[in-house]
């Protein structure tokens, strides 16, 4: 898949393409299916970060990392900043958005998104699957690594 072309992402079966700010207010259009989702920097804005993001402190754990580490994780020349998986896109993304709004929810993956200055302008798209979303996500991340030489910005290697 081409990670810089929205038309190609759509051809790969992704739908939605809603700003985070919209989904914070109304996530009812999210499907209740297995799937994968992408968080996109549609406008190709440069990496600009907050020292303290909006992510919740689940079990008291600080989700923030240093500005130096954020900058070193940033991947130029791609619209994809995070690839996620879900057994229920609606449930998982609602958890993700709640975490990003400071709630202590167990959605620690992709937490770097919440330290981007323009988080609310990022766009989320998703693809429902009838196959294992873990396998599909791993394949997308592998394709990304082949293209860019590293994982997407917020896909930390545990």
What this model shows, in words?
It is a single chain. With 158 residues, the chain is of the alpha+beta class. It has one domain (6-148). It is built from five helices and four strands; from the N terminus they run αβαβαβαβα. The protein has a four-stranded antiparallel β-sheet, sandwiched between helices. The longest helix has 16 residues, at 133-148. It is globular and about 35 Å long. The mean pLDDT is 94. InterPro entries: GIY-YIG_endonuc_sf.
Summarize the structure.
This protein is of the alpha+beta class and 158 residues long. 30% of the residues lie in helices and 15% in strands.
- Biggest β-sheet strands, sense, barrel: 4 strands, antiparallel
Helix content bin? 25-40%
Number of helices: 5
How far is the first residue's CA from the last residue's CA?
24 Å
Strand content: 15-25%
State the secondary-structure class.
alpha+beta
As for the number of domains, it is: 1
Going across the biggest sheet, name each strand in turn. 1-4-2-3
What is the element string, with H for helices and E for strands? HEHEHEHEH
Query: How much is the radius of gyration in Å?
Result: 14 Å
Mean pLDDT: 94
Low-confidence stretches: none
Shape by Cα distribution:
globular
Compute the number of strand runs. Answer: 4
